[in-house]
Amino acid sequence: FHLPAVAPKDCFLSPALMVVDLGRWQSENISGKILTWLQRYRDQPLEEDLWVKSLIMPPWLLSLERFAELDPAWGCVDLGSEELTPQETKSLLKMGLAREDMLRLEMGISSSGRLQPALHICTAGSKLLHFSGSFKPWLPTGRSSPICALPQVQGPYLGWTQSGESELTLHCKLDGQELRVLNCSSLWRAFLTAEQECGLKGYDAGWPDVDK
Predict the structure, then answer these.
(1) CA-to-CA distance for 99 and 120, rounded, in angstroms?
(2) In this structure, are residues 78 and 130 in contact, taking their beta carbons and an 8 Å threshold?
(3) What is the pTM of this model?
């Protein structure tokens, strides 16, 4: 067998949100194709690698011959990223991110052109939030948390922000619109009960002795 040619500009499948046509999935035996690629990976000579870094994504991509691209507004990914890429940073600056707002939000741009902490504006209209990256909203950290745009929908009855936390409004207009922002972790906690958040922190670390 041989690996299909993959061009550098080919699409990359994001597992954050997928809509699957189960009928076509079964008729085209996608599960069988994925298992076949995994078996080939298992049986490969030790001195060679069919792919690296991920065991899941390559067989998916090799098995899907046809797919439709969802609008980016469906999923907002990398909300746990510590910084934005240089390309993402340039895009925000072109949209109107001002130095005044960066100072107020304690942001900076590294020598490599990366905005720190990350500012995610896709949360304003996204239907799904994906906290991929090193920052997890249920884990405490001493570093600056990524910042997210406030969703443009009605929030839970207790509001989006945690007790004592304020929403900020950028003075400039990004892409022609005034932007209200808050810590990304607040969006995660907005729909969680205290018990659910405690469970995510881990049994030993978060649950009181009386509940063990």
Answers:
(1) 17
(2) yes
(3) 0.68
